[in-house]
Specification:
273 residues; seven-stranded mixed sheet; 7 strands; 9% strand; globular
């Protein structure tokens, strides 16, 4: 039996390493200083040792604006641009990983969420290593896809997702359609918070069922008149918000550097030295 493939959402490592290295001086950090990517490679090596990683890929966000901005220009519009040191050093980190035969997955205008979802949907990737709650949607009850949060050193199961959000992992994109996600600029439906969204999705399963004409009368049992009116008036916004939160699956995913076989953690640790 082959060892599991770990898909590393590498953005969290790079950003954590950058802030640990420079703190509140990050905006003035020398773009030619590789200190933070050395720290990131050390963090990655530590996780590899902790989880006994034998097969892996690191998955990257595109440096170009997401295709989601074409539909909704406000998507992630409030986020600050990358600091100069990040823009200069992150590509060097990726190249260093390729040079030691780590598989590096990237695609112009696509986010790591899209690429990880694409790999998982094809049965490539057993364990997602990320701090991004959106990727919890892929966690399976049978543990065929697992989730590990490296910043908290915590495994998150499908049962944990239900406890935290009140919905199944597979419903998280419908959930986002209702509650939105302020950190990404996803609007959702005004006035619908986590409790109301979870209550509706436990009863109606999905946005499609919530907005089904056949179930319209039943909505009144779970919403106030004001909420019902808002929900009906916000149908387009709800479905757009779900699209923004959902991954777009690629038919093929390009990889540079290697084909999942991981180098030793010692090699990764020294890759940016």
């Amino acid at each position: 039996m082959n060892p599991p493939v770990f898909l590393f959402d590498i953005s969290a490592y790079l950003h954590r390493a950058m802030y640990v290295t420079y703190g509140d001086r990050v905006a003035e950090a020398d773009p030619n200083d590789p200190s933070f990517i050395r720290h990131a490679s050390g963090m990655l090596a530590n996780t590899m040792e902790r989880l006994d990683v034998k097969r892996m890929a690191i998955v990257c966000d595109s440096t170009e604006p997401s295709f989601r901005c074409d539909e909704y220009p406000a998507y992630k519009a409030e986020r600050k641009p990358h600091y100069p040191v990040f823009s200069a050093q992150a590509p060097r980190f990726y190249n260093a990983m390729r040079e030691v035969s780590v598989a590096v997955v990237a695609e112009p205008r696509y986010e790591a969420d899209d690429l990880i979802a694409s790999l998982v949907s094809r049965g490539v990737g057993d364990i997602i290593v990320s701090s991004d709650k959106d990727l919890l949607a892929h966690v399976k009850d049978d543990n065929s896809v697992q989730f590990y949060d490296p910043m908290k050193s915590l495994w998150v199961t499908a049962a944990d997702v239900r406890t935290k959000f009140g919905v199944d992992p597979s419903q998280l994109f419908d959930y986002a359609g209702l509650v939105g996600d302020p950190s990404d600029g996803i609007p959702g439906v005004e006035g619908f918070g986590p409790k109301t969204a979870a209550k509706l999705l436990r009863e109606f399963d999905s946005l499609d069922e919530i907005y089904s004409p056949e179930r319209r009368l039943a909505l009144g049992e779970f919403c106030s008149k004001k909420q019902l009116a808002t929900l009906i008036a916000s149908q387009d916004m709800a479905f757009m918000s779900r699209r923004l939160a959902s991954p777009r699956l690629l038919k093929s995913v390009d990889m540079d550097g290697g084909w999942f076989e991981a180098p030793t953690s010692a090699i990764v640790r020294k890759a940016c030295a």
